[in-house]
Queue: 2 jobs
Job 1
Amino acid sequence: MDQHFADRYIEATRQLKNPLCVGLDPHLERIPTEFGVRLDALGSEQSAAGVQAFFEIVIDVCAGKVPVIKPQIAFFEQLGWRGLRALERLVARARERGLLVILDAKRGDLSSTAQAYAQSYLFPNSPCRADAITLSPYLGIDSLKPFIEASLAHGVGLFVLARTSNPGAADFQSLLIDGVPLYERVAAALAPSAAALRGSTGWSNLGVVAGATYPAEAARLRRTLPHSLFLVPGYGAQGASVAAALAGFVPQGERLEGGMVSSSRGILYGEGPVAGSASEWRAGLSERLDAARRELSEAIALAPEKVTLRSIPPD
Amino acid sequence: MDQHFADRYIEATRQLKNPLCVGLDPHLERIPTEFGVRLDALGSEQSAAGVQAFFEIVIDVCAGKVPVIKPQIAFFEQLGWRGLRALERLVARARERGLLVILDAKRGDLSSTAQAYAQSYLFPNSPCRADAITLSPYLGIDSLKPFIEASLAHGVGLFVLARTSNPGAADFQSLLIDGVPLYERVAAALAPSAAALRGSTGWSNLGVVAGATYPAEAARLRRTLPHSLFLVPGYGAQGASVAAALAGFVPQGERLEGGMVSSSRGILYGEGPVAGSASEWRAGLSERLDAARRELSEAIALAPEKVTLRSIPPD
């Protein structure tokens, strides 16, 4: 089997001293016009080539600085098959550069269909081979089995939606079943598999998505899933603070660890209006990336005055 | 706006006198070897070309005989970008032949990402333009809004997962919240939008997926969503009877109506071992299709001795 995803991630985050995950979300209207993305012709060769060129730069800037990137497949699907081709090439490029790749796909389907999704992204011979994937639990635990088997066989990482960061997440995820919210029921149902998928660092290949906008819930999830990595979206553009983003992290050695904090728009495009020239954008990209790395790096360092959020240790 | 999906579906099913939806699921190992699909090279041109040729025949056989087909995108994704290209071509071919196309994608994501998925499949300029799509509700009602807006603007159909047909569906979908199962809470949350998306036939563009293996639950969903079309998977290969598949249908004119009954493997490949030659397979395909159409056509006809499953009428 390939090396264990969570172990590789933990080694990389310890070495680079930050848990930053850069989301690759092609918000097409914010990509500098020099890249030639055509909003009136999303399925064109030109648009896919522009998106690919844009993210080749992002990947090259990220390599060696952050442990992991997270392409959002929806933004490539909107470009049609040429978008998927660009995604395949970008995923391969990122892995060649030593970046781990979590494919943000939120797939969830039953039996043979789930198997087909696992085959699509998680097998050594998959056309678009990622290191990990995000999954939706609505269809039940049996719908996750093909992915868990892929993890056992090939060491890949899985991140199941538990508590997402959008306002409407409460509609169903927070409904109480005998006093326990649904997302906690999901977590509890995952716990045995999470325990079975631990690596040599103690961390598991079965993680969860835990939105940074609800830190109290992340802390609660940590109790149910002590060994799972938390993929935390919502830092930056979605408005969550760095302390909130780390609510599910635990002290481990010199730092807090236990997941990755994702930022997409805040790093790729910055605040304000559409980026100017490609060269201005590129300079800003490095600055924004370094600022986010620095902020997270400081926040996870276990200087006593900063360690205000503690939780159950992973072992 | 384009013509209303539910109206078009209802007109087609009345004219063809059957509610059969043929699922296009490329179970690669069951496609006759003459098509050249290579299990050892899923991402190859040859595999994608083989799958495309196989389904071109299926589409041509289905045209004029059934109202709708349902490609399962996972099985195309496993072929990489060439699989998506084949899917785009097949969807276009089916629509040219007068078939409606429900893309079985079970997508579900938040705000701008949901918007990107809607852009991918539901807009007039989408590279892979379908007539309807399946969606997952786990992220909440706000995650469905971009799709509901696409439906208002472009007349497309939406089928949200309520109660699926797999054994593990009960893990979360049937959990009781104040005595009401989760899938019913999902249905109740959809009801206002479903009412707002009705067409001239009275049926709504906002439907649900309601597995045929749980007919009592389909009947219950019908009470909550009187105007929604039910996409019923699980007929045929998954073992549900035709009576169970029609549990959510209601008398309307001379027949039961209110949804579409999907069959994939049972029609495409039949029982037993791998199909023989392409010509044998093609002959069998027509026979299996006609048998399923006949069975469903008889089951929905309102001869008194057959009308055992009644429900609340749509108006």
Job 2
Amino acid sequence: MRQNEKPISRTVLFYIAMFCLCGLGLMWVLKRGAQLESHPINTPVASVLEVKSVGITSALEANLRQPLGLLLLQLLVVLAATRGVGALFRKWKQPLVIGEMVAGIMLGPSLLGWLFPGITKAVFPDASLETLSMMSQLGVILFMFSVGAELEINHLKRWAKTSLVISHAGIAIPFVLGSALALVLYRPLAPPSASFVVFALFMGVGMSFTAFPVLARIIEERGLGNTPLGNTAITCAAIEDVTAWSLLALIITIAKSASPASILIAVVLTLLFAGAMLYLVKPSLARLLAHSETEPFREHRALGICLFLVLGAAFCTQAIGIYVLFGAFLAGAILPRDPRLITLVKEKLATLSSNLLLPLFFAFTGLRTQVGLLGDVTAWGYTLAIIGTAIAGKLGGCYIAARWSGMTRLDAFTVGSLMNTRGLVELIVLNIGYDLGVFSPSIFAMLVLMALATTLMTSPLLSLTERWRR
Amino acid sequence: MRQNEKPISRTVLFYIAMFCLCGLGLMWVLKRGAQLESHPINTPVASVLEVKSVGITSALEANLRQPLGLLLLQLLVVLAATRGVGALFRKWKQPLVIGEMVAGIMLGPSLLGWLFPGITKAVFPDASLETLSMMSQLGVILFMFSVGAELEINHLKRWAKTSLVISHAGIAIPFVLGSALALVLYRPLAPPSASFVVFALFMGVGMSFTAFPVLARIIEERGLGNTPLGNTAITCAAIEDVTAWSLLALIITIAKSASPASILIAVVLTLLFAGAMLYLVKPSLARLLAHSETEPFREHRALGICLFLVLGAAFCTQAIGIYVLFGAFLAGAILPRDPRLITLVKEKLATLSSNLLLPLFFAFTGLRTQVGLLGDVTAWGYTLAIIGTAIAGKLGGCYIAARWSGMTRLDAFTVGSLMNTRGLVELIVLNIGYDLGVFSPSIFAMLVLMALATTLMTSPLLSLTERWRR
């Protein structure tokens, strides 16, 4: 085409002529059309939108008060806070998640809302929280799916003996200690809607979680990835994850159900769901997603199947009444361990959700956390008791079990320190308790601080063990 | 550790002992705690959640009526429809987007809502549309960002001469024809809130868009990627995109503003914004994202910068009052053309949004499209007139300009057919018109059908030219 291109002047001529003609045409159309306006008062469109022309500022404000403008503002604020504080904590050799947790709390009534209540109210008005909550939930669902997909099932088989004991000790012991603590905390802190049994069970389960993803990242960062110690810790965390989420599903059922019969129904339905996922969905998935090494990986198709799987599983668990995240986690765990598939889920599907939607979850949790409620010495005493119990139960429990199964003191302490990391997973569990009305705002704030403290201490503790080793 | 592992019996013993002890401990705690319940009536948590234990079905229903359950259901339905119909149309050698457009229309009042109005009302109740709309908007914002990032700016320089004339002819001619058609359609179809000028301008701009991403995909699928013809077409579409979005921004300003002064302010602000993006943000981006070839690509950082950029630009355009997508598109267009960065945006950032959020946009458009409104022969006559004008203006306009600049008849026809593809971009523009109150539901339905028809005909037309070539 370039070869037989006509001289440029001819093209320019055409261009100018076209514009003149079209311009004239448009003018004629608009002139003719003016006669068509037979509407009694020629209302400008602006009036429909209720934009008043009273200066720039008010017009700008009106544009921003629309839901989309507000959502964009919220996303920007949350991103700036989590990224900024996250970068700060990273400088101090802390995992990113700590910074994000702290940033969320800073946006809520504990800092920003306390210093400038007007700003928090303007950026996060109550009416906008529904959309924000939905988006953050979607982020957490996809996050749990990728946690399930990351689960090292092969490890689970190879390192099972020792790890099973350690991880179950790391659930049972903090669980009992947590529920014993409930004896002290129930009277002063439990909301009137929560019965003691439910409160105690939630306090117990709230102590028993380990942040699998944070732990996995710390192990990688510290170069423990392929050591027996690192493998044991990863396997412990994996077993712990499966056990603790199943336990939580049961406790949620007990908390929500009014009668023993409905608890039984929910348990049966959950078992049926888990059975169907493991024995019907898992084999068909393997067939659907089967690929020979030479065949190109059909990404669009695999993405569709993954999305159906995770949304469908989340939907089923929501219908049963246990938590959506149980389904999302199970969906990830039954994915075929094709490395291309796991990479797709971890690196492509989860990119947007972990960079944009998950920070919303931290902000959402922060908006609920009122550190200001811990006004007096007693409250801070309770908080310290909770943190102490959590550490004693988890770090201590894992240490004892690890020593008993023959580990050295240093190794046992390292595994215990790693398992003590609560991270984001703990925040998810606390929010479930809050939504169910089991936790009051003040005990919620205390438990959030516990999650922060136990996550914060992991890196220093590990540095300590490294120094001891030398 | 494995070597000096203690005999298994010892571990089993510990495990059993631990469980017995912890079990007894928990029982004691729960028994003691029962005395603590001093609340007058021991309300079970269930009552807080208003779940009544009247059988499984109603419990399931209650769980699903919660916003998260509904959202999951909507996502599943939309995914199933777009994926299913998309696969069907793919079999017929049509681009995926056609299937997704049709699926969206099928979910709305045109098919599902007409056959089973109860289902549409139950799955997409009005109260849930706000969240759905926000999520689909976010999807479209990220989509426009990746369209901008895909924009072949180097092509733009190399093939500019011919392409500029063709693409501007492909805007000016359908624009004038579309606004001339408004002379006929204004009286019977325009909503009372729209003045003739605004209606005619929107009819014009509605005819002038080309679906850049659909066109790019078709060119790739047909193996035209590196031919002069394919390059000219891609460049035409790129120039068209930039021009048409700028034009739309201007027309939206005219539509929204009550006085000439506020139009002027918006235009000045838009120019300031575009200038700042091009001359301040673009150079700093290049510096922020600069990487030597050997250095590892810092993905987390790049993702953060991209998200800030696109959300910030969208926020600014929302504040000015032109459409958010103008900002998102510009943000993509000024990204440094580092291939790793473009891959990151296209393949990672956009994966979730184009697979999950964008289908919501099709569904959202479909829920507004009431093909049933075209009840009589006159309405279908108008629809045909609109489709005819759109084709004559775009395909015809581009053909004439291409012939004039020296292309063969066959090449000119091929370029015209490609530029005639409306696709998703057209739906975005139509929704803007609908939101502004410029399009009535019936003319909205007609224009959606026009978008469908022009997208649908591209593949057959190209197959025709291929047969002629042989």
